[in-house]
């Protein structure tokens, strides 16, 4: 008896039972705590782009993805995320555990002013929640730049600011014109 020789042509690979040959993969994760995750927009970029909203438990997912490298970015006004983005790769299987932690962001006000026409060693910044004062000094040391970031502010509040210039003898000028910042 002669051996049987079988020749196959045009076969590009094998499909095993239960394998996902369509490239229909998914990625999922969670944003904690769930109170912050609920309603967070989650953006996906890479070979496919999409967006979704995390549910009341902070869970989100994307499906119908092909192999490749992707980036997920959570976005929720009033929060910062750790990490702020995550990169991952799909290589023939679903990906889970792309998780984020949300922390309420602290509102800030960025202040800038023009330099004094006198020779000065620095400036002080004063703040009030009342139009016209009284004001409290917010910096602990003289500010040598022409800008200052005031942090630890409260949302839905209007703050009123004035600056003073300080010379080498420690003499402080009168208050500048008042400026305001409304924190959303």
Report the sheet with the most strands, covering strand number, pairing sense and barrel closure. 4 strands, mixed
Count of separate structural domains? 2
* CATH second-level architecture of the largest domain: Sandwich
Q: Number of helical segments? A: 1
Q: How many strand units?
A: 14
Stretches where pLDDT falls below 50 for ≥5 residues? 1-21
Helix content: under 10%
CATH domain class name of the largest domain: Mainly Beta
- Secondary structure class reads mainly beta
CATH topology of the largest domain: Immunoglobulin-like
What is the C-alpha radius of gyration, as a whole number of Å? 29 Å
> What's the helix-strand series?
EHEEEEEEEEEEEEE
Sequence-ordered SSE layout with sheet pairings:
Layout: E1 25-32, H1 34-37, E2 41-45, E3 50-53, E4 59-65, E5 68-75, E6 79-82, E7 86-90, E8 100-104, E9 109-112, E10 122-128, E11 136-137, E12 147-150, E13 157-166, E14 179-183
Parallel strand pairs: 1-8
Antiparallel strand pairs: 1-4, 2-3, 2-5, 5-7, 6-8, 9-12, 10-11, 10-13, 13-14
Characterization of the model:
The chain has 2 domains: 25-104, Sandwich (Immunoglobulin-like); 109-183, Sandwich (Immunoglobulin-like). The protein is 2% helix and 42% strand. The chain has one helix spanning 34-37, and strands at residues 25-32, 41-45, 50-53, 59-65, 68-75, 79-82, 86-90, 100-104, 109-112, 122-128, 136-137, 147-150, 157-166, 179-183. The strands form 4 sheets. The chain has a 4-stranded mixed β-sheet with strand order 4-1-8-6. A 4-stranded antiparallel β-sheet has the order 3-2-5-7, with no helix packed on it. The protein has a 4-stranded antiparallel β-sheet with strand order 11-10-13-14, with no helix packed on it. Strand 10 (122-128) and strand 11 (136-137) form a beta hairpin. The radius of gyration is 29 Å and the shape is elongated. 16% of the residues are buried.
């Amino acid at each position: 008896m002669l051996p049987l020789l079988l020749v196959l042509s045009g076969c590009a690979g094998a499909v095993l039972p239960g394998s996902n040959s369509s490239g229909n993969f998914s990625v999922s994760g969670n944003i904690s705590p769930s109170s912050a995750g609920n309603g967070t927009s989650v953006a996906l970029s890479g070979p496919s782009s999409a967006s979704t909203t995390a549910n009341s438990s902070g869970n989100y997912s994307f499906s119908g993805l092909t192999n490749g490298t992707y980036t997920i970015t959570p976005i929720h006004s009033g929060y910062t995320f750790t990490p702020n983005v995550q990169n991952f790769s799909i290589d023939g299987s679903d990906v889970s555990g792309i998780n984020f932690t949300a922390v309420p962001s602290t509102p800030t006000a960025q202040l800038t002013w023009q330099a004094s026409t006198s020779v000065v060693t620095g400036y002080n910044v004063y703040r009030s929640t009342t139009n016209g004062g009284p004001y409290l000094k917010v910096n602990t040391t003289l500010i040598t730049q022409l800008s200052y970031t005031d942090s630890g502010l409260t949302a839905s509040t209007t703050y009123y600011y004035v600056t003073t210039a300080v010379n080498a003898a420690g003499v402080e000028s009168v208050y500048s014109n008042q400026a305001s910042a409304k924190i959303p």
